[in-house]
Design goal:
Elements (H helix, E strand, L loop, with lengths): L1 H12 L22 E5 L5 H15 L3 E3 L17 E2 H12 L10 E6 L3 E2 L10 E3 L5 E5 L5 E3 L2 E3 L2 H19 L19 H6 L20 E5 L2 E5 L5 E6 L4 E2 L10 E6 L4 E9 L6 H15 L5 E8 L2 E8 L4 E10 L2 E10 L4 H13 L2 E4 L8
Parallel strand pairs: 1-2, 1-4, 3-5, 4-7
Antiparallel strand pairs: 6-7, 8-9, 10-11, 11-12, 12-20, 13-14, 14-15, 15-19, 16-17, 17-18, 18-19
């Protein structure tokens, strides 16, 4: 296995052009239908795109090609942001992608970009990748996958491997019927929202090819009861109730964890990302902090400060600030009756850090955890 990993890394960053797959142009006819096209845009490294196409083809058994770089002229960032909407990439690139040689109705496209990625709804801080459920195109962003060395962004072996993993996950799900699972070491681990989690998952999917949809016990349900949004999964003994007037549930996207939930409030300044898990896999907030701290360092974000651990109404919580970003976060865990509810609240707002932290405490106190047999009653 180690030998295979080393071979992959060498191929991803090899400078020997003879070994790299030459980018395909839109004009010549392809000798056979293409299952997957990697489409680099602007200044995404063409050599990396070509090498990834070759390696992905060997790994999946599919015909995978890399196109020439496609332009993004005129594509504007989201208002008051340096991020770009995944939907805009699809609208811009899809017409050109369909003209590539070997494209069929079944061809899947992976757009590669160096721009920071989000969606038009901006119900999350960022995305490593995004795919609209009604399209055959995913967008993978390198922006947050690079490493920092002496304050400079670097495309090294680790960063290239992160991009490769995100591409392979998208292709496996779209073309091979791979489904997400609960193994944090597997390529198809359900929720990869941090650099630490992405670095942990392996290069292989242990489940092989599967076409079945996720089992019903995995699917998150959302219902409105007495002015509260009730979140739960069939296998859970608990329900999490969120004030309906304060929060908006983000529309589910391809690649979201089946048991995950994504909400926003205050015009996107306040975010909640969470998950339902089996209590058997629960761990303390200290371990969560290790992952968060590693993720912050890997992305070169402002250093966290004023880290504190508190117990709030049955929740084990960890709070910290990122002062130069005017941001405060809370990680909260609730474990009972075989269910582990984990969530992270993030508030970005000008003002004193303590005011933001108190606002997060009040938001957490407004949440109600109930046994399913007693929905509507605080437990």
């Amino acid at each position: 296995m180690l030998r295979r990993v080393l071979l992959l890394l060498v191929c991803l960053l090899s400078l020997n052009l003879a070994r790299a797959q030459a980018p395909a142009s839109a004009a010549p006819a392809a000798p056979e239908p293409v299952a997957v096209y990697l489409i680099p845009t602007e200044n995404f490294p063409l050599l990396l795109a070509g090498n990834m196409a070759a390696m992905l083809g060997r790994d999946t058994g599919l015909t995978v090609r890399a196109s020439a770089a496609l332009p993004l002229d005129g594509m504007a960032p989201l208002p008051n942001s340096g991020q770009y909407a995944a939907e805009d990439f699809v609208e811009k690139v899809m017409p050109l992608a369909k003209t590539l040689s070997g494209v069929t109705a079944q061809t899947f496209f992976v757009v590669l970009t160096t721009r920071d990625l989000n969606t038009r709804s901006r119900n999350s801080l960022y995305y490593f990748s995004s795919r609209a459920s009604d399209t055959n195109m995913s967008v993978v962003s390198m922006a947050r996958l690079l490493n920092y060395q002496e304050g400079l962004l670097m495309l090294d072996v680790t960063a290239a491997t992160r991009v490769y993993k995100m591409c392979k996950r998208a292709i496996g799900e779209a073309q091979l019927g791979w489904v997400r699972n609960d193994d944090p070491d597997d390529l198809m681990f359900g929720q990869v929202s941090s650099i630490a989690a992405l670095d942990r998952i392996g290069l292989e999917h242990k489940g092989g090819k599967r076409t079945a949809v996720p089992a019903a016990p995995e699917q998150l349900s959302v219902a409105t009861v007495d002015g509260m949004l009730h979140l739960s999964i069939p296998a859970s003994a608990l329900t999490l109730a969120v004030p309906r007037q304060d929060w908006t549930v983000r529309e589910r996207q391809s690649g979201d964890a089946a048991r995950g939930f994504y909400l926003s409030a205050q015009n996107g300044a306040l975010l909640m990302v969470g998950n339902f898990e089996n209590a058997y896999g629960s761990h303390g907030v200290g371990r969560a902090w290790d992952n968060i701290e590693a993720d912050i360092r890997a992305r070169g974000e402002p250093e966290p400060s004023e880290v504190s651990i508190e117990n709030i109404g049955g929740w084990k919580t960890l709070l910290f600030d990122q002062r130069s970003a005017n941001s405060s976060s809370m990680v909260a865990y609730y474990v009972r009756d075989g269910t582990w509810i984990s969530l992270r609240l993030m508030l970005t707002k000008n003002g004193k850090p303590e005011a933001r932290r108190e606002a997060l405490r009040q938001q957490l106190k407004a949440l109600k955890v109930s046994a399913k047999s007693a929905v509507g009653k605080a437990q």
